[in-house]
Design goal:
The chain has about 250 residues and is of the alpha/beta class. The chain has one domain: Ribonuclease Z/Hydroxyacylglutathione hydrolase-like (Metallo-beta-lactamase, Chain A, 4-Layer Sandwich), CATH 3.60.15.10. About 20% of the residues lie in helices and about 25% in strands. The longest helix is centred in the middle third of the chain and has 14 residues.
Length: about 250
């Protein structure tokens, strides 16, 4: 499946690995949902759900892949749980993320008034409620070391207390949610390529955020599928060095 559109506002879906598809939508197709083929029976599950406006596109794209069976939240921030409440399937997350998934999505520990760039401070205040369809009932949990559809759950806390990624050693692919950003979140109206640990203003624990970037580096992935923008590919040693440098230098902070 490879669905592209000339309409810059329309979502796109393309296969990025065996049994894995990236569904990119919302502004500049910058919000990612990953469909993963279920091991038992037809259909896919969604890893993260983007924003509220993406619900229709997610349902349509998943239907072409056999149907959406469940959702796994990488974490519960409003641009990741955004459409979960509208999809009508069971939702799973890490145990440490349940309270926020069923609550305010972690907004209580994100002081948006402290965003250091003036236009971004106002922008995030406006878009947060637009992105979010609200709390979602959690049907079950996944913890570090659990297996799902050929992937292993890895706990990457810091940005959110229960943030997780999905790791597949066979092709060294990590679906990383917001363990890293690939642009400067403080200046979202431009594109500033690089590897950025999430800024402390968005984090539940900024020091843990850096440790999680190092934990991702230690896996030595060759492909990282992040929560935003296109996958990052490279040689294992090269990516490890870049990730470690981003954590050590606190890039973007």
């Amino acid at each position: 499946m490879n669905s592209k559109s000339r309409n810059p506002l329309a979502p796109t879906t393309e296969q990025i690995a065996d049994g894995v598809w990236r569904h990119a939508g919302d502004i500049r197709r910058g919000m990612n949902v990953y469909f993963v083929a279920e091991e038992e029976g037809p259909g896919v599950f969604a890893f993260d759900t983007g924003t509220r406006a993406m619900a229709g596109g997610i349902r349509k794209a998943a239907a072409e892949l056999g149907g959406l069976r469940r959702v796994v939240l990488g974490h519960s921030h409003v641009d990741h749980r955004g459409s979960a409440a509208k999809l009508g399937v069971p939702v799973y997350c890490h145990p440490d993320e349940v309270a926020d998934a069923e609550g305010d999505g972690g907004v209580h520990y994100q002081p948006l008034g402290e965003v250091p760039v003036t236009y971004s401070r106002w922008l995030y205040r406006v878009v947060y409620p637009i992105w979010d369809a609200g709390p979602v009932k959690i049907s079950g949990t996944l913890s570090e070391g659990d297996r799902i559809a050929g992937f292993e759950v890895v706990h990457f806390p810091g940005h959110a207390p229960g943030q997780i990624g999905l790791w597949r050693e066979s092709d060294r692919l990590c679906l990383s949610s917001d363990t890293i950003y690939l642009t400067d979140s403080m200046r979202p109206l431009g594109h500033h390529p690089g590897i950025y640990p999430p800024h402390p203003v968005f984090d539940q624990d900024a020091e843990q955020t850096l440790e999680s970037v190092r934990k991702l580096a230690a896996l030595e992935p060759s492909k990282i599928a992040p929560g935003h923008l296109e996958p990052l590919r490279g040689e294992r040693a090269e990516l490890r060095a870049r990730l470690e440098a981003a954590a050590d230098e606190r890039t973007g902070w």
